[in-house]
Amino acid sequence: MQSCIRPKLFGQSNIVVALRKIFHTLNEKKKMEAEGGSGAAAVNSEEDFNESIESHDDAGNEKFPYLCRHAYVHTDDNEFISYAPGSKTGKIGLWIGPKLTLEESYFEMEITDYGVEGKIHIGVSPWNHPLGSHIGYTVGSIGLCVGNGHILKDCEMATDTIRVKIAREYDRVGCGLRFEQCYDSAEEGDDQESYVLVYFTLNGKEIGSLWTQLPIGGFHPAVSMQSPGEEVRVMLGLPGHPMQDDDEMVVDSTEDDWRRLSDVHQRGQILEYCGKGQSIADVGLAQARHPLNTTHHYFEIEIADPGENCYIAIGLTRKDYPDRRNPGWNKGSIGYHADDGKIFMGSGKGEPFGPRCHKGDRMGCGIYFSPDYISEYDSDCEPAADSPSQAGCSNGKDVELIDLTVDTSGSEDDEWWNHQGKVKCGTKVEVFFTRNGKTVGMRQVRIPKGGFYPTVGMLGLNEKVRVDLRPLTG
């Protein structure tokens, strides 16, 4: 299934890429007509492929630094590579580039077309990698399958790596070498064995690596593919990707910030809706891993792409909030919706609250905790009835209390609630919402047992937001 992600392509617009594809298709059609419909000119037969290997035994070294091997793919100056099996449907397309060196030890590909099945692999291999095999499925090669996120070595899943994130269309996937150590053989007098660290990146973030012995002749960048429509753009000659220490990787990574992502794709601070977007049952939900507290009491989203209708919502939900429900629609939640400016509080019926929001607007949500507030997130006891922090007032004024355990929406999770019982709620807090840094309004609610979790809901195709779970202000 193709992703809805559509960022720019290394500084080029999507229009340029589309025009390339159109011109390429027209040129191929003309070639086929001139050859009597014998097949696409980009397709190599197995005989032609083997002959090309024999005629370039030294390819990839200093004598032939820019020669590449390929079969069942079309290459556009070794930049755009697309699957082209001709009449031999199901054949594995293979491309192998010039040898990676200490100075140019890293390369990237951008998935310009995910194809029908997304059977694209990236990795490194010896120059004589056999025809008919994916990268990582033969001895001496290491590959990452973008379709399932598995790293494979010598036809086996690498045991010293974990399953990494699955790549999607227009993601940038990289592979490189770190020539960092050489280990002497156990027996004196044996030749020295060189080992390198093969690592993979996704959109600039390192996602997996493993040590392996450097083959005679070195490693070459390689890409393989197998389903119709697949196309990538390759960037060669890049310097090595800098190593990140453990502390940097923890600080820079936002993947662990999310407890649940339902029909939402996450890339750094960007969340993008990837559901069907056909009915209210297709809501995409992103719930943060940790609830708001007195240290981090506020978060924001910026509408990067409103889609067609800006069906985007920001709010707070209980820990076990159901999937496919916008914040505010169900018990134990409250949400401010961008498309109509309404606030929803444990009910499918909203009420007028603030202005509508559009592309570039920043929507924020936070909690005003009282000075004597004590976190009950990890407590099994109910809050004391006479707790000073439960006073039904704010700034000396009476404020209407909204008990989020009450639901008059007739929502789809009523059966679940009848089985589980009501949400246990404790301390009363003030939840407030902002738009572009200015407070829109607030409501006083009882915080659910376990706390309130930052939550983002989306329902329209191409909707995309940038999230800051810990802004400096708020």
- In CATH, the architecture of the largest domain is Sandwich
Q: What is the CATH H-level superfamily of the largest domain? A: SPRY domain
Largest sheet: 8 strands, mixed
- SS elements, strand count: 31
How many structurally independent domains? 2
Quickly give the structural class. mainly beta
User: Largest beta sheet: what is the strand line-up?
Assistant: 16-17-31-19-24-28-29-27
- Tell the overall outline: elongated
- The low-confidence parts are 1-13, 32-65, 159-163, 182-191, 245-253, 377-423
Percentage of helical residues?
A: under 10%
Q: So what's the CATH class of the largest domain?
A: Mainly Beta
Quick check: average pLDDT? 74
Span from first to last CA?
A: 39 Å
Structure description:
By secondary structure, this protein is mainly beta. The chain folds into two domains: 175 residues, SPRY domain (Jelly Rolls, Sandwich); 163 residues, SPRY domain (Jelly Rolls), CATH 2.60.120.920. It is 9% helix and 36% strand. The strands form five sheets. It has an eight-stranded mixed sheet with strand order 16-17-31-19-24-28-29-27, with no helix packed on it. A seven-stranded antiparallel sheet has the order 1-4-13-6-7-8-9. Strand 8 and strand 9 form a beta hairpin. The radius of gyration is 27 Å and the shape is elongated. The two termini are 39 Å apart. It comes from Frankliniella occidentalis (Western flower thrips). This is SPRY domain-containing protein 3-like.
